[in-house]
Amino acid sequence: IDRLVLTGHEPVVRDVASMRALVADEIALHGDEWEGALAAVRRVHAAETLRIGFFDLAGRLGADEVSRQLSVLADALIASLVQAALRDVADRADVPDDAFGVIAGGALASSELGYDSPLALIFVHGPALDARVARRLARSVVTGLTCATPEGAPYEVAAESGPTGSHGPLCVSSARFLQHHRDEAGT
């Protein structure tokens, strides 16, 4: 709060690159291992939500800018958790660079996230990644986003219907994802 009010050093708007750099810097302070990444994600989430809310209350951000900033924050935190989970799992399993991804749905996909919006996420893995490892990665990311601490839980992750089915598996293969959108999904 000192940086916001007293010195005015916090920017009103952060772009994706600067938000990701902020998260990376915080992770570097807490250590590169999984627990350090979780601590960094919680800290950045709390600080950035406060920053966005402060500028929202001050009238410096419109509703659409607030939604975009909250979406940029969620994007940066998800990307950081994916990288931390990949580092954590890479010690025990072979994970190709492009074998795991996260697709946003709902309010996050349209950059219309609100302060309490749940994250609608689909985890997709390529054929080179074992499905058990992909599920472990997805569970790690969801845990990092939803784990309750004394400061609260950063996000709620909503069950997305679609290629994973209504409340279906957490992670789906890229082939199944494409099949769903070619053959089963509505227009």
How many β-strand stretches? 4
Low-confidence stretches: none
Largest sheet: 4 strands, mixed
- Principal-axis shape equals globular
Distance between the termini: 46 Å
Reading the helices and strands in chain order gives HHHHEHEHEEH
Which structural class do the helices and strands define?
A: alpha/beta
- Rg calculated over all Cα atoms: 17 Å
Average per-residue pLDDT, rounded, comes to 86
Percent helix, as a range, is 55-70%
Strand content: 5-15%
Count helical runs: 7
Keywords summarizing the entry:
187 residues, alpha/beta
Question: How is the secondary structure organized here?
Answer:
Layout: H1 2-7, H2 16-30, H3 34-57, H4 63-90, E1 100-105, H5 106-109, E2 119-125, H6 131-146, E3 157-158, E4 171-173, H7 174-184
Parallel strand pairs: 2-3, 2-4
Antiparallel strand pairs: 1-2
Helix pairs in contact: 2-3, 2-4, 3-4, 4-6
What does this structure look like?
It is built from 7 helices and 4 strands. With 187 residues, it is α/β, with parallel strands linked by helices. Strands 1, 2, 3 and 4 form a 4-stranded mixed β-sheet that branches. It is globular, with a radius of gyration of 17 Å. The relative contact order is 0.12.
Structure in a nutshell:
Helix content is 56%, strand content 10%. The protein is α/β, with parallel strands linked by helices and 187 residues long. Helix 2 (16-30) crosses helix 4 (63-90) and helix 3 packs antiparallel against helix 4.
